[in-house]
Amino acid sequence: MQKHHRCLKSTLLALHIVLYCSTGLAAKEPDANTRRHFQIAPQTLDSALKAFSAQSGLQLFYPAELVAGKNSPGLSGQFAPAQALQQLLKASGLQYRISNANTVTLEKSADPAKEPFEPQSATLPAMTVKGVAEYDSTDPYNPDYNRPNATTATKTDTPIMETPFSIQVVPRAVINDQQAIKVEDVAKNVSGVQPGNSDGNYYDGFIVRGFDIGNSTYRNGFRIQNTQSETVNLERLEVLKGAAAMLYGRIQPGGMLNLVTKKPLDTPYYSLQQQIGSYDLYRTTLDATGPVPGTDSLLYRFNLAYQNNESFRDFINTERIFVAPSLTWKASPSTQFNVNMEYRHENSASDYGLPAVGNRPAPIPISRNLGEPGANQRDDAWLVEFTGSHKFNDDWMLKGGVNANSTEYLWQDVSNRIGRLLPDAQGNPERILERGVWFGPSNRYSQGIYVDLTGHFDTWGAKHNVLFGGDYYNFEQDVSVFTNNYAPVGCPINIYAPTYGCVDFAKFRNAAPDSNTRNEEQWGGVYFQDQITLWEKLHILGGGRYDWATVQSGFSATSLNDIGPLNTIHNGRFNPRVGVTYQPWQWLSVYGNYTESLGSSNGTSNTGQAFAPQTAAQYEGGIKLAWQALTANLAFYHLTKDNILGADPNTGLSVPLGKARSQGIEVDVSGKVTDQLNLIATYAFTDARLLNSNSEGPAGSRVPNVPEHQASFWAKYNVTPQFSLGSGAYVVGQRQGDPAESFQLPGYVRWDAMAAYKWQIGKSRLTAQVNVNNILDKEYYKSGQTWTRLRIPAGEPLSVLGSLRLEF
Description:
This protein is mainly β and about 800 residues long. Helices cover about 10% and strands about 50% of the residues. It is globular, with a radius of gyration of 28 Å.
């Protein structure tokens, strides 16, 4: 009853905010030239015109006999009312006349062959509408599953067909149709991307092209470490495959995930959604945007999410509050400034999954939590981002931005220990799990800054699009926790017959910290890039970057104040990047690239000796196809990574593994097949192996958690303009669980589906939707932590998520 009360309270609060926004900000006279969403089914012309009047706010006058016996093709999409009316009157032999700003009179056209507009009207100018409505990429009503342009690969708004790299975009329409709440749920629509190590479900972690990219994602081009990102303010996800360090610094070579957030719009839009799902999930979201009243130069956007849920896993619950306001100031036609903020407060519990027994995950219920009831983690995260741009003229523009991020954690944690399961008192093997404690605070801070100058010019018939830039990144982390010196907590648990309650949380909560660490990381870089176009068909990209990087770390068993001089490692390196795209026709591109990158610092060994930094190189070639609103990408790549580290399975200390290689084939298809059918489909063949022999596994062993075969398919079909159905499957092959290949994670197939129905209520749209995930209730396991057999996360069983979304 208490959960339902919280859900009702949050819904009423969000509804109050929406109603305030709609009455206080959107109460304007109808503007015949402002684009808005129309949803009018094919029907009699009289009924269609009545629907148009209700949705546009314009008054139409005409005698009934004028439209008798006539039909309208209807329309769906974003139009100015002038465009919408013209589309509805096509082939009717009618035209409109303006009586005043908000009144329209219909009459017979003197020349039925003419377009149905009044040429002398200044209020509703003559327009031509052809084919299906084209949406702006940021339009909240945009149903398209693909995007023709992306910025992540080049930092310029370059058509994907002209970009010599593999860049995939998952737009908001897919996120809405799949009701994706986590970034992990969005990324499953991209080939070669798998969930990575989340360290007990603390962070977003991903594996791309066979390599773990760590707990780092990017938000509008800024690096964000060790956090879980929200999706309520996510406009789209852009995934750049392969070594991306040339523009963004020290990135793992598999690729990068860039979360592009929603921006303020100049057209008012409001959305309130309530979701209710399995395991007592209640989630309320709000999206409101438009001009600030009294001005057209200042735009706002406000996103809010409140979520409260249990889990199919024992003792796991989450409560989250997320607020994200943003402002855009159009200071002049050539100058713009943006301020974005985020605040997230979350109470949850860590979840380390299940151990392995023999060569498979333990044969125990996937709901079983081997931690303790009462374990808890709390975090408060703040983010502020300021960006701006100024156009000197049509060719040259200066852009820049500053980002600051702060996260405070407080842990009360009992975790699976490093090592193996022990025998029980009767000598039965692999029964007893030793556990460790982790109590105390952690504080993380990061800052980023960049400045870019872009320009266009021609030389001897060659068109140049140049970029000159520089950036700086700083990351600091202080951890002061009690861990009992990493010794077992003294409360082992039998995984087959667990007994809980032997951990005294009060005792550990008041214990003095015995593990105090400080980590600092700074790097700066300068880069240049030139995109050259010859004969409108050949696109050549060349560029490079030089990095200066410093990593510092220190440890004390007593307190942070007792940490002495930090161990310091300096690295510097130049990384080139070249690519070529040949586009003989608009629908076909052939591309190739070569890139190098400087990856993460490997830190120091337990003796204090610095490990060599990670580096990588990639060769890639591919084909891109585009048929109207459907695009496809076929990529072949060969990627090597040097100086990688692993962990000793007995001590947990870092050890060098040498070199790894990943090579494979990736296919991504997305977009509109017909006006009714949208789809997004992927396939990846990934051959990722450790090439050097080491203490953890033989040379040639597979990189952990990387399936050789992976595929996905999702399609949505609009049965009518109001009713739609969708379904998809996600296929993941068998994976090795650790570098020693001591256990395997079995492959799986997950089947999902959705259904939605829309009602047009005046100017508003109400959508009822239900999504069913893992319909066949298959038991499966996601990627675990590569250095232990004891932390394998289980996938969610059959679950249902329903929602009501009101938009206006």
